Amino acid sequence: MSAQADTAAARRSGRRRGARIGSGLASYAGFVPAIVLLGLCFLVPLGIIVCYSFWETIDYEVVHHWTFSNYTYFFSVSAYVSTMWATLWVAVVATALAIGLAFPFAYWLSRYVPQRLRVPLLVLVIVPFWTSYLLRVYSWLTILGDQGVLNRFLQWAGITNHPLGVFLYDRPAVILVLVYLYFPFGALTLYSSIDRFDWNQLRAAMDLGASPAQAIFRILVPQIKPGIITAIIFVFIPILGEYLTPQIVGGTGGVMIGNLIVNFFQEAEYTRGAAVSLLIAGFIVVLLLIFRKSLSAKEAYGA
Amino acid sequence: MAHDVEVLSGRARFVRALLSGYAVLIYVFLFAPIFLLVLFSFNANRYGTFPITGWTFKWYRAALSDYQVHDAVSTTIKVALQVTLISMVVGTAAAFPLVRSRLPGREGIRIILILPIMIPGLLIGVSLLVLFTSTFHWTLSPETAVIGQAVYTTPFVILLVAARLQGFDAALERAAADLGANSFQRLRRVVLPLIFPAILAGGLFAFTLSLDEFIITFFLIGGHNTLPIYIYTQIKFGITPEVNAVATMLLAGSLLLLALAFVLPQLFRKARRAGARLRAAS
Fold first, then answer.
1. What is the C-alpha to C-alpha distance for residues A184 and A186, in angstroms, rounded to an integer?
2. Does domain A78-301 have CATH number 3.40.50.1980?
3. Can you name the residues that pair with A58 across neighbouring β-strands?
4. CB count, 10 Å around CB of A213?
5. CA atoms within 13 A on the CB side of A41
6. Whether B223 contacts B154, CB under 8 Å
């Protein structure tokens, strides 16, 4: 009798012990390596960038001298300011195009494609996203360049007899490649929210007299709004920090703020570069804070 | 739900056909540039473009006998292996408290752990450049690039392992505790085997990301080259078929690793189940 009570008690305490697995101070130990890596090599450097942006470079030496001069300098050079606006403009246009193109695609995939084909077709879209970023940018040179497919075709068709430089080295080329780079991301995010939508609602709306467009914009879109916002933010943010795309296909006409940052750092103007970096970082943090309620990193990265 | 027998009106059928055509165009848009890059790597035309003047492997031979490519390949692999090891260990360790502890401010920690994915790599690159060269006065090397890349890849491992831990049946661990397993034994014999597929997938993922990473490496590797950096320095002088060949090999490598990241964990799970059945039978 008492032996039975003992085992029962032991089982209970075991269960309680089990329930406590994962609590207690020791279980936080797992954070330690991550705190060392991400704290020391991510947060601390960002903090240093903040300090640098308020210090000065004098004769290639960083002087610990608190000042706003890096910022006032940036805003006093009109080429920099216009590059900043151009970057925002390119980011807005490219994001709008990427999401705008991805929406009908995600709609098609989740509404008209048989269940068993959906995942393979989705994976097919995402595969380019996980291949080399550099190569995806580079591959457009083979199409848009002087010796590229487009120019070859035009010469072959007799439309022109010399390579046209118009396809490359300007904003439209940058926007085209950015849309290409981030379309898969938009498609994935939109698909994962559209796929949870109950299509009967759309049919019901149309039975009640809504036009297809009304049904889509008043029934479907409001329900997948968090997915749309996540897609927009996660496409917009990396574009703000783009360096490679404008560098490879943008030429002098397509310069973005990322190129300015790289130039400052390559010329050892660390404090000025830091100020521009902080402008971007600050802008991103504000965006993330405003939209943090609707963002789902889980959805965006499928993990 | 949407595909129960639905009588489509003529107009709905038209919309479906239209959207299907659109989807085909999207796939062409996504794959044409990559396809052309691969195509031109086999084209005898030395300008790396149309017309196709014959099929050849000579650009591959040229690329493979180039010592700069050799150097870049070995640096890339060395860096990727170190990055993979660091992010697997750090990421797995962090996934546990992230999922299981009821730490106040866990959401905040979660955001900080995921932030390196969300912030542009350019900012990670320049801020580490300042830390390493200006604060620590280190010389840039492949090792500094390893640290930078690990900052970016570790969050992916955290996400993958945390997702697996979340789906993990806590009753299994409690059962092991009831049967007298101490916490180390539970970790070693119950938890780790069950989440191993996710750790493996995370590792392969980190390896692929490291292989292809450009901007952080660009700032932190100093005088050395990884394959993406090598390709970048080459394309400044225009497209050449050798670069197309190197690019194609890099592409094939990352696709292979990605496929492994999806397939291996499943194979592993199947093998474990088969093993368990064998043991149960004997």
1. 5
2. no
3. A61
4. 8
5. 21
6. no
How far apart are the CA of B262 and the nearest CA of chain A, in angstroms? 11
Residue from B22, B123, B256 to probe the interface with A (highest A Cβ count within 10 Å): B123
Number of domains chain B is built from: 1
**Closest approach of A78 to chain B, Cα-based (Å):** 23
End-to-end alpha-carbon separation of chain B, Å? 45
Is B123's CB within 8 Å of A280's CB? yes
- B108 located within any domain: yes
pLDDT band at A260 (very low <50, low <70, confident <90, very high): very high
pTM for the structure as a whole:
0.86
Domain that holds residue B250: 62-277
Q: Which value does ipTM take for this structure?
A: 0.85
- Does the CB of B228 have a partner CB in chain A at under 8 Å? yes
Residue of B nearest to A200 (CA): B2
Vertex B30 angle, CA B28 and B31, to 5°: 65
C-alpha span between A233 and A235 (Å, rounded): 5
Between CA B167 and CA A72 the distance in angstroms is 52
Chain A residue with CA closest to B7: the answer is: A203
CB contact under 8 A, A142 and B32: no
CB pairs < 8 Å spanning A and B:
277
**What is the per-residue pLDDT for A302?**
45
User: Rounded CA gap, B97 and B176, in Å?
Assistant: 20
Which residues on B lie below 8 Å from A248 (Cβ)?
235
pLDDT for the residue B6: 54
Domain membership flag for residue B32: no
Q: Is the pLDDT of residue A2 over 70?
A: no
Whether B273 has a pLDDT exceeding 90, the answer reads no
User: CB–CB of A135 and B89 under 8 A?
Assistant: no
Residue A94's pLDDT band, with cuts at 50, 70 and 90, is very high
Is residue B56 in some structural domain? no
Q: Residue B216: which CATH number?
A: 1.10.3720.10
Whether B14 maps to a domain, the answer reads: no
Domain ranges for chain A, please list them.
18-47, 78-301
For chain A, give the DSSP string: -HHHHHHHHHHHHHHHHHHHTT-SGGGGGGHHHHIIIIIIIIIHHHHHHHHHHTSEEETTEEE----SHHHHHHHH-HHHHHHHHHHHHHHHHHHHHHHHHHHHHHHHHHHHS-HHHHHHHHHHHHHHHHS-HHHHHHHTHHHHSTTSHHHHHHHHTTS-SS--GGGSSSHHHHHHHHHHHHHHHHHHHHHHHHTTS-HHHHHHHHHTT--HHHHIIIIIHHHTHHHHHHHHHHHHHHHHT--HHIIIIITTTT--HHHHHHHHHHTT-HHHHHHHHHHHHHHHHHHHHHHTTT--HHHHHT-
What is the 3-state secondary structure of A221-243?
Answer: HHHCHHHHHHHHHHHHHHHHCCC
Share of residues in chain A with pLDDT > 70 (%): 85
Computed over every residue of chain B, the mean pLDDT equals 86
The model's pLDDT over A119-137, given as tens digits with 9 standing for 90+, comes to: 889 888 888 877 888 989 9
Is the pLDDT higher at A213 or at B156? Answer: B156
